[in-house]
Amino acid sequence: MSKLPHKWLVVVSVLFGTFTVILNNSMLNPILPRFIEIFESDAVAVGWILTIFMVSMGMTMPLTGYFGDRFGKKKVYLVGLCIFLAGSTLGFFSSTLGMVILSRAIQGMAGGLMMPIAMALIFNSFPRYERGLAVGVYGVAAMVAPAIGPTIGGFLIQYVDWPWLFAFNIPFGLTGLILSSKFLERTETDPTKRFDLVGFLIIATGIGSVLFALGRGRTLETLFDPLNIALIVGGLIAIVLFVFYENRQEDPLLNLSVFKVPTYSVSIVVTSAASIGLFSGIFLLPLLIQNVYGLNEVMTGLLFLPAAAASGVFMSIGGRILDKKGPKYVVPPGLTIMALATLGLSFLQLSTPYWLILLLNTVRGLGMGMGNMPATTSGMNSIPEHLVAQGSAMNNIIRQISSSLGIVFFSIYYEVRRAQVSANPDIDMQAATLQTLNEAFLVSAIVLIIAIPFSFILKGVQDDKEEQEA
């Protein structure tokens, strides 16, 4: 490893930590029904295992810009990784559902500190014209972990007790901690920087309320529950209030001026659409494989492995194209490929072979790799260097909300629409489920298609050079 250039050791270091955070979250998804049996609880209580992670992560992210400037990005990342290891250790020794939920809250706080800072550390180590490839390699954590997590979680639970799902994180986390301590570069600090407490309380309340409402609103009844509506409306009001408040501050918690940069704003739109596309597949494909075609969890897990590999490979290829040619040569083609493959999933029939579904999902992964991280990199490249940590935090927050919104939409659509279709006496439940999933994939494809024209607005380092020369 010592033969690698130092800047690539930075990528490897943060890759270990962030991969572990995301992998742990996706590993627990297929295990929730088992927790209902283990703790003799219900789906609502067990659902907190996922909801609390999402909420605490979203509420912590706005702090990363301030912490990074005040104490240094390396220190913040290391503290976040230590907190994650503490949460994993608590999860391993948990004996009650309450302790598991508490450990997940701690892990979420750690993820909120680590994810935005990881991107900022990479940007700090690479010049603009090399960041595409660097972020593409790092993006393996963000894109591949959600795809392989359910497979690993399902495999582990077959052979070991559930606490080992938390222990699985510890070796990777410790490795990331050792590498990060040794190879991450210290960044400048500003001891005089003021903490915007009022701004934090407003935005934490807004994000926490919205994410909590989306986390519990997986059915039509719970989504339109008076409490849920109050949380969403109150959260949105708080976010709007935060925007007005921050624009009046000399030293804001989050500098919202980055949204005046067209490339950054468009990159948020593109990555949000891609996230909805990604998580729609993660939610819908297991239902398709198990409820329509009657295959088991192993076949479901295998469906995601080639897609994860394709996503990882083409994320690096897309990053290299971004560095050499610019975003217009990689992001629009990536979104188009992903949209077409998703569209193909909307035409499935009961006679469709498994290998064709696997192929379409692999092509989706290919398109995701080319479209998502290059869009993020071009957006982050377009903002001032001193705002990278804050820009990364806002990117992660909006992606978290859009992913949650996508899962809620497709969950409710699946339940409501399947009930409507199956009410027809001429259609059995299997055919009704297939029709519903076909329609859901069509909606996902439309979201991606809508994002394609926006992706042509993205500008890269090459465009900046041409403008300067002109």
UniProtKB/TrEMBL annotation:
Location in or out of the cell: Cell membrane
Major facilitator superfamily (MFS) profile domain span: 10-463
Transmembrane segments: 7-23, 43-64, 76-93, 105-123, 135-157, 163-183, 195-215, 227-245, 266-289, 301-322, 329-348, 396-414, 440-458
InterPro entries on file: EmrB-like (IPR004638), MFS (IPR011701), MFS_dom (IPR020846), MFS_trans_sf (IPR036259)
Chain coiled-coil ranges: none
Keyword set, alphabetical order: Cell membrane, Membrane, Transmembrane, Transmembrane helix, Transport
One annotated GO molecular function: transmembrane transporter activity
Keyword Transmembrane helix: yes
Topology within the bilayer: Multi-pass membrane protein
Gene3D superfamilies: MFS general substrate transporter like domains (1.20.1250.20), Multidrug resistance protein D (1.20.1720.10)
PANTHER family, A to Z: MAJOR FACILITATOR SUPERFAMILY MULTIDRUG TRANSPORTER MFSC (PTHR42718)
Homology family: Belongs to the major facilitator superfamily. EmrB family.
Name of the protein this chain belongs to: MFS transporter
Organismal lineage: Bacteria, Bacillati, Bacillota, Bacilli, Bacillales
